[in-house]
């Protein structure tokens, strides 16, 4: 029996099963089996294998990477060429773009790489089309823009989300707050610091048994579902922010546009007429959470033209030094920082000080 047939069989059984307390245990087991089969599908057993697709993986450049995901002919290439001035082949038929087309934009001093990925079709996570390679590149992005046609958005949105979820990409979610630690002996130890409804000791044991884990500590710190536990056990999930870009708004009325504006994580645009691009860029900047640090040579004014851009969560003085050159940290004595992260301007700080957006720094060497 092929992997796809097994997956279809489990999905059918899950659709047939009623959801209630009595069946929660059984559904948890099925979900775990499904996750394991999906992983096998993405990473087939037996090394070697054929060559990768032509021109798929693109070298990562700039400070952040954004992938455009969507069905064929929703205007991804038009959007890319109008945003970045890169010529990605544009035509009015489906599947014009066959490989990844990179482009770079400069926004607020940061270099942002844009990737126009080929159109995803239904069943991409099962290896149809070029889906597997497209989504592998999507996993390496800092932000995903799902480009939708405003005339048929919701069906497409659900399908693309379903494909990405099947590949272990979680959109606009935080990693589940579950502590999970394997042990050598002592059985499964399940504790919860909050009230929980869906996961209980039995379900946890059955899911872990499916992964042949019989000794582990599991701590629930928030009310989680069976899917959350499977994500933690699998450990290969990526959590990526996502913006839904509704293209072709030149074809709808003003009233419909007002409705669209109320949807969370959504930006309506027209790629062809270049409408609302500033709104889109502003939202991209918000979702990327990049931090700009300006440098100040001794006795001179700060250089506001070329900031050093750091990703959110890695913004200490040490990270700043490593971004410029790895030998800089060896000669580092202290730094003077101006800005919102310090109490007085300038303040003398060590290498562990965490900086905020638009701080100014002056390094003092030994």
From TrEMBL:
Domain (OBG-type G) ranges: 64-289
Domain TGS: 289-365
Pfam families to which the protein is assigned, alphabetical: MMR_HSR1, MMR_HSR1_Xtn, TGS
Matches recorded under SUPFAM superfamilies: P-loop containing nucleoside triphosphate hydrolases, TGS-like
Key word Nucleotide-binding present: yes
Coiled-coil regions, chain positions: none
Domain of life of the native organism: Eukaryota
Record GO terms (molecular function): GTP binding; GTPase activity
Keywords: GTP-binding, Nucleotide-binding
PANTHER family from the UniProt entry: DEVELOPMENTALLY-REGULATED GTP-BINDING PROTEIN 2
Protein name: Developmentally-regulated GTP-binding protein 1 isoform X2
Biological source species: Chanos chanos
Gene this protein is translated from: drg1
């Amino acid at each position: 029996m092929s992997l796809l047939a097994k997956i279809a069989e489990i999905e059918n059984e899950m659709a047939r099963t009623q959801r209630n307390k009595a069946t929660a245990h059984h559904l948890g087991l099925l979900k775990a089996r499904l996750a394991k089969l999906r992983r096998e599908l993405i990473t087939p057993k037996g090394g070697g294998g054929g060559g990768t697709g032509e021109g798929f993986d693109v070298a990562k450049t700039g400070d952040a990477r954004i992938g455009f995901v969507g069905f064929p002919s929703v205007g991804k290439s038009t959007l890319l060429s109008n945003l970045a001035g890169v010529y990605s082949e544009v035509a009015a038929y489906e599947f014009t773009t066959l490989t990844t087309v990179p482009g770079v934009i400069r926004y607020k001093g940061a270099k942002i790489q844009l990737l126009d990925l080929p159109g995803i079709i239904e069943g991409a996570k099962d290896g149809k089309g070029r889906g597997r390679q497209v989504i592998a590149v999507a996993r390496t992005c800092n932000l995903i823009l799902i480009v939708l046609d405003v005339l048929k958005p919701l069906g497409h949105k659900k399908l693309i989300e379903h494909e990405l979820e099947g590949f272990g990409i979680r959109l606009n979610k935080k990693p589940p707050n579950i502590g999970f630690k394997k042990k050598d002996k002592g059985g499964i130890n399940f504790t919860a610091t909050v009230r929980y409804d869906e996961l209980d000791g039995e379900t946890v044991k059955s899911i872990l048994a499916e992964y042949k884990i019989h000794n582990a500590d599991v701590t629930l710190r928030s009310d989680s579902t069976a899917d959350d536990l499977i994500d933690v056990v699998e450990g290969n999930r990526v959590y990526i922010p996502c913006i839904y870009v509704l293209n072709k708004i030149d074809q709808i009325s003003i009233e419909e546009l007002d409705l669209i504006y109320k949807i969370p994580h959504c930006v309506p645009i027209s790629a062809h007429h270049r409408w609302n691009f500033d709104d889109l860029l502003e939202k991209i900047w918000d979702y990327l959470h990049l931090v700009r640090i300006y440098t100040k040579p001794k006795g001179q004014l700060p250089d506001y033209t070329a900031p050093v851009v750091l990703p959110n969560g890695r913004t200490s003085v040490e990270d700043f030094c490593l971004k410029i050159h790895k030998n800089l940290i060896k000669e580092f004595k202290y730094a003077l920082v101006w800005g919102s992260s310090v109490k007085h301007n300038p303040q003398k700080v060590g290498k562990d000080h965490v900086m905020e957006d638009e701080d100014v720094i002056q390094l003092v060497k030994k």
